[in-house]
Amino acid sequence: MTTGQACNDLLVDLTGDMMQRLRAIREILVERRQSEAEAARLAADGQVIYLHAREEQAPVWEKTGETLEALGFAVVPGEPDPVKREPKAARNVADRRVETLSACDGLLLLGTDDGAALDADLVVVGRKDRHSARDRSDRLLPCAVLNMNGQDIATPRRKSMARSLGIDWIDTSNGGWTTDVRSWLTEASRKAERVR
Fold first, then answer.
1. Which domains are seen in the chain, by residue range?
2. CA dist., res. 165 & res. 151, Å (int)
3. Cβ-contact 192, 28 below 8 angstroms
4. CB of 103 within 8 A of CB of 48?
5. How far apart are CA 7 and CA 120, in angstroms?
6. Within a 10 A sphere around the Cβ of 29, how many other Cβ atoms?
7. Which of 1, 32, 143, 176 pairs as cysteine with 107 (C-beta 3.0–4.6 A)?
8. Is pTM beyond 0.85 here?
9. Are the C-beta atoms of residues 39 and 190 closer than 8 Å to each other?
């Protein structure tokens, strides 16, 4: 091998290494911009909140939705989710939920007196459907339980399960829960910024 050939080979290797590093830097910058956009979206006014509840929770869901709308949030869906027993119907409900969730800024799980329903909603809606929506939209989707029933459902095990699933807990018994919802979204935006 001649000296010129060795220099050319070295130059080709160096150029290849530099291109790989530039691509990696570009990917990091794209991720940073996306995180900044997510943080700004969560901190802005006019966020869309998915307020999840079951049909039997309709009266509490309606009142909670009206309160959130009065604060400037857009609240979806237009009615509580139906509970379907047939597998195909249940999948259709979940598919519609994921489609809607993928365009939302946050997910609130309504926690009422039915602890078993909340347990299922934590895993199915708060974890499975939320992750599906995040995969579909490639967006941050913070989630919290909006505890409307005080200590009856706020058991240590249930709160621990929520934490392990990345789900926050907002207690309404102190009366200032509307401020807590805003704080929750603000904190989610800060977490998005820290990811950068």
1. 39-195 (3.40.50.300)
2. 20
3. no
4. yes
5. 65
6. 10
7. 143
8. no
9. yes
Residues ≥6 apart with Cβ < 8 Å to 113: 149, 152, 153
Please report, rounded to a whole number, the percentage of residues in the chain having pLDDT higher than 70. 81
What token pair was written down for 4?
Answer: 């010129």
Residue 104 CA to residue 81 CA, distance in Å, equals 16
**Whether the predicted pLDDT of 24 surpasses 80:** no
Residue 105 — very low, low, confident or very high, per pLDDT cuts 50/70/90?
A: very high
Structure tokens at 19: 């291109």
Question: Concatenated DSSP letters for 75-117?
Answer: EE-SSPBP---SHHHHHHHHHHHHHHHTT-SEEEEEE-S-HHH
Tokens of 74: 């857009």
pLDDT band at 41 (very low <50, low <70, confident <90, very high): very low
Which one-letter amino acid corresponds to residue 111? G
What angle (nearest 5°) sits at the alpha carbon of residue 69, between those of residues 64 and 72? 140
* Mean pLDDT over each residue of the chain, to the nearest integer: 84
pLDDT band at 50 (very low <50, low <70, confident <90, very high): very high
**And the tokens for 167?**
């789900």
